[in-house]
Amino acid sequence: MKLVFLPISIVLGLVAGQLSKKLFDFMWSRFDEEEAPRPKHRQINVPKLLIALVIEGAVFRVVKGLVDHASRRGFAKATGAWPGEDAPERA
Question: What are the residue ranges spanned by the domains of the chain?
Answer without folding.
Answer: 2-79
